[in-house]
């Protein structure tokens, strides 16, 4: 979808449809919409009354203009109460409106700058994100593809002095949405395509296009570095493990060095502690953290931030076989800690243990953030619409959560209670990789904390939010790309801090 800015009034806007916003609990149309209604001789207000349009969030009504305006249709989308308006309302309104336009066969959409009271840049970014995320589809493997698609979105505003911030917002919105959709594509691909080797090739292509450094370590390299926890998980699969390290280095002076670690289990059968058939069905999504890291790293050269960012992924499958690790096995992680395998289905924390230890030793960043579809316990605690946040430094966690709020991605802080570390004790090793069922998300976070060491660290458990079984306001069933827009927002804010 091409995004452009047009400095003109709404009554002059051209296209197959013109999108404007309507607020709830307001008796009068806003001045720009009222001007359109006058041009249509009251037809717009009449249609809104007949269709009982109340301005509720994402509610849509439209009318054909019959040649009375340059645009062929006027579509009004609900923004809810004006006092409750924020960027996420604009995103969702844009997504709803653009989906309706697409379903109507519209090719060219003109849209007002939705969201009175917000800055032009924020309004434009939210509009672009909503339009692109809301119309995302994954039909690569379908013979019959939906031919309906909006080809161009023209953002219309009469104030030419707002052109620069609006264009900047559109650019950021397009970049953020494209990154999230890139991650969605990777998650939605089947596991017979997205193997560890495939992820490594994607990383190499990203490095080539973005002029990033890329190092891919194979099994022998990882053995030499002492990554016994990661390689223990990889033992059961015929697919070779690939440890991926991407580095973005700015041309300007580096203000901060940040490591972002993503869980990269390209398929999780559970290993010898085999999952049920139902529980295994969508385990292609267990690399959602890795997909987010690749999408973020792919975007950094375009942003040009004065940060050094390292993207780290320990990619493997978790499969049962004659060579798979067993419950009761003991492995040694890169930092020297020994781990008893209490359950082979708690494999993500093992791969992350070595990835975090590697980041701490080889990168020595000022902070580490990891994203992982780590525990079913987080789904029990927070459901499918909210990710869990754990940390060893609260100011860092506060900044990440604030970035998530700005990006419209729900995240909630959870406590790492030191007494719960007792639940990870092993009689034969330094740690067990699982604790009891209660507080499972917290004990997983405590386990990871051991390998971040003294470095400021934040853990995002996205097990519930990385994949959706139903359509959401900003996208269809499938991978969501969660975490991408949060961490891009975070990195931009850190560059300015």
Beta-strand content bin: 15-25%
Round the mean pLDDT to the nearest integer and report it.
97
Number of strands: 19
The low-confidence runs, each spanning 5 or more residues with pLDDT under 50, are none
Structural domain tally: 2
- What is the general shape? elongated
Rg calculated over all Cα atoms:
24 Å
Number of helices: 15
Main sheet summary: 8 strands, mixed
CATH class of the largest domain, named: Alpha Beta
**Shape-level CATH architecture of the largest domain:** 3-Layer(aba) Sandwich
The termini sit apart by 33 Å
CATH topology (level 3) name of the largest domain: Aminopeptidase
CATH superfamily of the largest domain: Zn peptidases
Structural class: alpha/beta
What does this structure look like?
The longest helix has 26 residues, at 163-188. The protein has helices at residues 31-39, 43-50, 87-103, 120-134, 163-188, 196-210, 219-224, 228-234, 277-280, 288-303, 348-363, 376-382, 394-407, 440-452, 484-496, and strands at 2-6, 17-22, 60-64, 73-78, 108-112, 152-156, 213-217, 242-248, 256-268, 307-318, 330-332, 338-340, 367-372, 387-391, 411-413, 431-432, 457-461, 467-468, 478-479. An eight-stranded mixed beta sheet has the order 7-8-10-9-13-17-14-15, with helices on both faces. It starts with a strand and ends with a helix. It has two domains: 2-156, 3-Layer(aba) Sandwich (Leucine Aminopeptidase, subunit E, domain 1); 179-496, Zn peptidases (Aminopeptidase), CATH 3.40.630. α5 packs antiparallel against α10, α8 (228-234) runs antiparallel to α11 (348-363) and α10 packs parallel to α15 (484-496). 37% of the residues lie in helices and 20% in strands. With 497 residues, it is of the alpha/beta class. The mean pLDDT is 97. The chain has 15 helices and 19 strands.
């Amino acid at each position: 979808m091409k995004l452009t800015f047009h400095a003109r009034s709404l009554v002059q806007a051209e296209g197959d449809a013109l999108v404007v916003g309507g607020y709830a609990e307001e008796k009068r149309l806003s001045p720009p919409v009222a001007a359109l209604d006058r041009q249509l001789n009251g037809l717009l207000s009449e249609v809104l009354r007949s269709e009982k349009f109340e301005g509720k969030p994402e509610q849509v009504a439209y009318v054909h203009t019959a040649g009375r305006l340059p645009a062929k249709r006027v579509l009004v989308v609900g923004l809810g109460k004006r006092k409750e308006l924020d960027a996420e309302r604009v995103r969702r309104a844009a997504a709803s409106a653009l989906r309706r336009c697409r379903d109507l066969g519209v090719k060219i959409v003109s849209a007002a700058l939705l969201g009175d009271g917000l800055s032009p840049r924020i309004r434009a970014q939210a509009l672009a994100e909503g339009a692109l995320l809301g119309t995302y589809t994954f039909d690569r493997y379908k013979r019959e593809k939906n031919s309906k698609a909006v080809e161009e979105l023209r953002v219309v505003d009469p104030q030419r002095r707002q052109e620069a911030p609006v264009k900047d917002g559109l650019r950021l919105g397009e970049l953020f949405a494209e990154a999230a959709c890139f991650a969605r594509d990777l998650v939605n691909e089947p596991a017979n395509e997205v193997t560890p080797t495939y992820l490594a090739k994607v990383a190499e292509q990203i490095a080539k296009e973005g002029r990033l450094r890329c190092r891919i370590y194979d099994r022998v390299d990882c053995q030499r570095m002492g990554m016994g926890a990661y390689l223990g998980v990889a033992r059961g699969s015929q697919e070779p493990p690939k440890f991926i390290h991407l580095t973005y280095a700015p041309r300007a002076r580096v203000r901060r060095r940040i490591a972002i670690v993503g869980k990269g289990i390209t398929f999780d059968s559970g290993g010898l502690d085999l999952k049920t058939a139902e529980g295994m069905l969508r385990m292609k999504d267990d690399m959602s953290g890795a997909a987010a890291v690749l999408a973020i790293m792919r975007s950094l050269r375009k942003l040009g931030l004065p940060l050094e960012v390292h993207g780290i992924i320990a990619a493997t499958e978790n499969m049962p076989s004659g060579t798979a690790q067993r419950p009761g096995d003991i492995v040694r992680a890169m930092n020297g800690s020994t781990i008893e395998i209490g359950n082979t289905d708690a494999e993500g924390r093992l791969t992350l243990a070595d990835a975090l230890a590697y980041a701490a030793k080889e990168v020595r960043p000022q902070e580490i953030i990891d994203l992982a579809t780590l525990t079913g316990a987080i789904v029990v605690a927070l459901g499918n619409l909210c990710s869990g946040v754990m940390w060893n430094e609260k100011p860092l966690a506060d900044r990440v959560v604030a970035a998530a709020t700005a990006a419209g991605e729900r995240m909630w802080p959870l406590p790492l209670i030191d007494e719960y570390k007792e639940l990870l004790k092993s009689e034969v090793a330094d740690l067990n990789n699982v604790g009891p069922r209660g507080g499972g998300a917290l004990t997983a976070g405590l386990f990871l904390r051991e390998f971040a060491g003294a470095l400021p660290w934040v853990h995002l458990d996205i097990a519930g939010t990385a994949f959706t079984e139903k359509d959401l306001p900003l996208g269809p069933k499938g991978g969501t790309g969660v975490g991408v827009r949060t961490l891009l927002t975070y990195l931009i804010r850190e560059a300015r801090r």
